[in-house]
Amino acid sequence: MTATAQQKRALSEADDLDAKAKAGAEFKTTGAEAVLRVLEDLGVDVIFGYPGGAVLPIYDALFQRNSIRHILVRHEQAAVHAAEGYARSTGKVGVVLVTSGPGATNAVTGLTDALLDSVPILCISGQVPTHLIGNDAFQEADTVGITRACTKYNYLIKDAERLVPALYEAFHVARSGRPGPVVVDLPKDIQFAEIDMQTADAAKTRATRRYRPVVKPPESAIKQAADMLLSAQRPVIYGGGGIINAGDEASKTLAELVALTRFPATLTLMGLGALPAEDKHFLGMLGMHGTYEANMAMYHADVMLNIGARFDDRVTGLTSGFSPNSRKIHIDIDKSSIDKNIKVELGIVGDAGQALKMLVAELKKRKTALGRMNIKEWWEKIEDWRSIRCLDYDQKGDIIKPQYAIHRLWQKCAKKDVYVTTEVGQHQMWAAQYFGFNAPRHWMTSGGLGTMGYGLPSAMGVQIAHPNKTVIDIAGEASFMMNMQELSTIAQYQLPVKVFIINNEWMGMVRQWQELIHGGRYSESYSASLPDFVKLADCFGMKGISVARAGDLDGAIDEMLTTKGAVLMDVRVAKEENCFPMIPSGAPHNQMLLGPNDKTGSSVSEEGKILL
Amino acid sequence: MAQQAMQDDKARHTLSVLVDNEAGVLARVIGLFSGRGYNIESLTVAEVDRENSLSRISIVTRGTPMVIEQIKAQLDRIVPVHNVRDLTQQGVHIERELALVKVANTGDARIEALRIADTFRASTLDSTLASFIFEVTGSRSKITAFVELMRSLGDVEIARTGVSAIARGGNVDMLVRPLDSTKN
Questions:
Q1: Using CB atoms, which residue from A177, A206, A339 is nearest to B180?
Q2: What is this structure's pTM?
Q3: H/E element holding A498?
C-alpha cells in the first residue's frame, strides 16, 4: 500500500504521540481515537463496517490515523459475516464497526450466527449521546438490550473512563474460552470525550482478570478418559468445531491421537478439516446428512470420545435413541455444553488442544494396553457400512447432478489450498459431503444458526485475510440472493471471490422437507424471477459463467479457477434432486434414509414432524 | 419413558449468585432464565459490597438434576458473575423472606388478626381503625400460612420480598477471584 504524504505525516505524528505516551507524558486523546489506538495495540489490521451519524467521530479517526484497513460493506449483516469469515480462516478476532439504530439491528443476525458457531467478533456500535439515551432519539435503539441475547457479553459505555478498559476486556472475552461475539455500544459524546491514555497499559493488564475460563483439564480426568478408551471394543471419536477454535495445533494432535489409537473418527459440520478428509480413519461427517458409516459407528459404539462438539440436534437425531450403548466422554471448554443434551459419564472442562495433548501423552505411556486392544472386528463392521457407499450418485446424461458439480469442483481443487464458504441449504450439505478438507480453517459455513446469505460476505472476509488464495462460495441461488448486494463490495476491493451457484431454481432444502413431510405441496419454495447471473456479474464488472450441460462442467470450472478476478458461476443442476443420506427428524442414527427409493429406513413420525 | 421419569424428578433449589453490580447484569440473568425456558420461583437482588461493587442474587428455581446443573453452568459463564452456589446442594442453609401484609377489617376479625400476628411474631407497622399493616419474617411456608390466615380475616394487600438465603456455619463465602481495589 502506498501512503500519501499526508497520511505519512499523520503516521509519523502518531508515532510521536506513541513515543510521548511511552515516555509517560500526560497523553489526552478523544474517545474515537482511543478506540483506534486500542485496536491497533491489539493487532487489529482490518475492520468491516458501515458509517452513520453515531460513529462519525470513529470514521474520522480512522481517516486521520490511517492505520487500520476498513472494508466498506453494503449491509451491516454482511459486515459481521465478513468478519466471521476473516476470524474463522485466521483464528483472529473479527472486528465490526456499525452505527446506532439500524446499523446495530442489521448486525443482529450476524452476531447471533457468531454466537451459535463460537466465532470471536468484536462489534463496536455507535449510540446516540448519553443524554439522549431513552428519549427515542433519531436512530436510537436499545442496542445492549437487543443484543444481550445474541452476544457473549456486551457493554454500553456511559462513562469515558470505562472506554479503554471495556475495549480491552471485550477483546479478551471475545477470543477466550468458548469464543463469541461481544458488542461495545459507544454513545457519540463518549467518542468526543477526552480520554487519558496513560491508564491504557493498566487497563490492558486488568482486562483478563474478571473472565478466566478453565483451559487446562484436570490430570485425573484425562487418566480416567484413557481408562475408558482403553476398555473399548467399539470406540469412536466425534470431533467438533472446538478443535478448530483451539488452534491448528489441536487438529494436528487429533491426527496424532487417531494415528496412535487407530480409532475411527467422525467430525461435525463445524469440525470439518480438523482431521484430514483423506485420513483412512475418517468416516466422514456425522448427523442428519452425515455418512452411513459415521452414524452407524456412533450408534453401535461402546465408548465415545466427544472433543469440542456439543451434541447438537442435527448430530444426535432422536436423543433417547442416540448411541444407546456407549459410555461417553465429553471434552468441552464450555461447562454448560456438558450434560445439556446428552448425559455423559465423564465430562471434562478444558481446551480441546490441551486435553488432546494430555490424552495423547497419557495413552503413549500405556502403549502395551493400547497394543492389546482389539478393534479389528469393529473396523470390519465399519468397512461393511462403508461398502454401501452412501454418497454414490448417478451422473447420467446431460443434466448436471448437484453432487457431481461439487464433487468435480473438489477434484479440480484437490491440489490447491482452497478456502470454501457456503450458504445454507442442500448445496451446503452436498459441499460438506463431497468437498474434502485436509486442513482446519478452510471451511466456513453457518452451522448453528443456518443463516442463508452467510457465504458471500463470509467469502469476502476470507479473501481479505488470504488475498492470494482461491476462495469459493458454494452457494444456492436463493441464499445467494439474500446478500447479493455484496457483489458491489467485491467489485470495489477487487476481491477474486468465486461464487459457485448450485442453481436448481428451488429453495432446495425447503422443497425437500415439503416433499417428505407436507405431501409435496411446494408452498412458496420456488425461486421465481431469477436474474440472468451472467448479466448480473457483467454489470458489476466481474466474469459470469453459465453452465447447463454435464459435458461442459469441467471446462467451466477450469475457466472459473483460472480467472484472475471474481467469478459468478451459474451451475444449472437437476431440479428435483434431494440430499441423502438423511436421518429423518425424530429418528435415531440407525434409521437413515439412503436415497429416494429407500423404504428400509423410517419415514417421518408424527413427533418428528414438529421437529426441525 | 426415561424422559418421563426425569420429568418427575424435579426439585426446588436455592442458588446464591455473586455478581458485579453493573447495569444489565440482572437483565442477563433473567434473560437466561426466560430465553432457555427455566423456571424462577423467586429472585431477589441487592448490593452487598459497596467497596467492590458486588451484588448478591438469590434465586429459587425448580428443575430436574440435569436442568439445575445446566442453570448453574449457564449462570457461571456470564462474564460479571463471580460465583454460583447451590445452597440446596451444599446442605443446611437458612432461607428467609419478609412480607408486608395489609389487612382491612373490623370487629372480631380485627382482634383475631392481632392475635394471629402475635403468634407469628409479626410486628404491627401501621394501624387505622379499619386496618393493620404487619411485617412478618420467616420461611416461605410460614409467610404463605400467615397470608392465608389474614385473607380469611378481611381484604388483604401483600408485598413480599422473595427469598434471601445464606449457608449455615462459620464458612464465609468470599470471592474466589481477588478483586482489584483500584477498579473504578
A1: A206
A2: 0.93
A3: strand A498-503
Joined grid coordinates for residue B106: 373490623
The tens-digit pLDDT sequence of chain B (184 residues) is: 344 445 568 999 999 999 999 989 999 999 999 999 999 999 999 999 999 999 999 999 999 999 999 999 999 999 999 999 999 999 899 999 999 999 999 999 999 999 999 999 999 999 999 999 999 999 999 999 999 999 999 999 999 999 999 999 888 876 544 444 333 3
DSSP A148: G
Q: Among A152, A188, A498, A543, which one carries the catalytic annotation?
A: A188
Q: Which of B24, B70, B79 sits opposite A211 (nearest CB)?
A: B79
- Band (A1; pLDDT cuts 50, 70, 90): very low
Question: Parallel, antiparallel, or unpaired: how do β-strands B42-49 and B54-63 relate?
Answer: antiparallel
Question: What residue spans define the domains of chain B?
Answer: 2-90, 94-165
- pLDDT for A195 equals 96
A324-344: pLDDT as tens digits: 999 999 999 999 999 999 999
HSE-up of residue A87 (Cα within 13 Å, Cβ side):
33
The CATH H-level superfamily of B2-90 is ACT domain (3.30.70.260)
Helix or strand run (H / E) with residue A278: none
CA distance B29 to chain A (A): 10
**C-alpha distances out from residue A93 to A87, A103, A122, A461, A607, Å:** 5, 20, 7, 12, 41
Neighbours of A414 (CB within 10 A): 12
A553's grid cell: 462442467
Specify whether A362 is catalytic: no
Catalytic residue, candidates A7, A40, A64, A139: A139
Question: Residue A449 has what pLDDT?
Answer: 98
> In Å, how far are A156, A392, A452 from A474, measured between CA atoms?
38, 20, 12
Catalytic residue status for A509: yes
Is A22 among the catalytic positions?
Answer: no
Answer whether B2-90 and B94-165 agree in fold: yes
A358 catalytically annotated: no
CB contact under 8 A, A154 and B24: yes
At A254 the three-state DSSP class reads helix
User: pLDDT tens digits, residue range A486-541?
Assistant: 999 999 999 999 999 999 999 999 999 999 999 999 999 999 999 999 999 999 99
Beginning with the edge strand found earlier in the chain, give each strand of the sheet holding A153-156 in spatial order.
A69-72, A46-49, A94-98, A121-127, A181-187, A153-156
- Where would I find the H helices in A148-305? 160-175, 188-192, 200-206, 219-230, 241-245, 248-261, 292-300
Nearest-neighbour CA in chain A from B70: distance (Å): 6
Chain A residues within 8 Å of chain B (Cβ atoms): 144-145, 148-149, 152-154, 156, 158, 161-162, 173, 177-178, 206, 209-213, 320, 334-336, 338-340, 343
In the block, residue with C-alpha cell 402475635 = B118
Assess contact for A421 and A475: CB atoms under 8 A.
no
Q: Check A358, A444, A507, A509 and give the catalytic one.
A: A509
CB contacts, 8 Å: A156 with chain B:
23-24
Interface predicted TM-score (ipTM) of this complex, two decimals: 0.89
Active-site residue, A63 included:
no
Distance from CA of A61 to the nearest CA of B (A): 27
Strand order across the A543-547 sheet: A443-444, A418-422, A470-476, A498-503, A567-572, A543-547
Vertex A470 angle, CA A547 and A564, to 5°: 70
Backbone dihedral angles phi then psi of residue A396, each to the nearest 5 degrees: -120, 145
Q: How far is B164 from chain A (nearest CA, A)?
A: 26
Determine which helix (DSSP H) or strand (DSSP E) holds B167, and give its type and residue range: strand B164-167
Residue with cell 479517526: A61
Q: Is the pLDDT of residue A2 over 80?
A: no
- The arrangement of secondary structure in B94-165, i.e. its CATH architecture, is 2-Layer Sandwich (3.30)
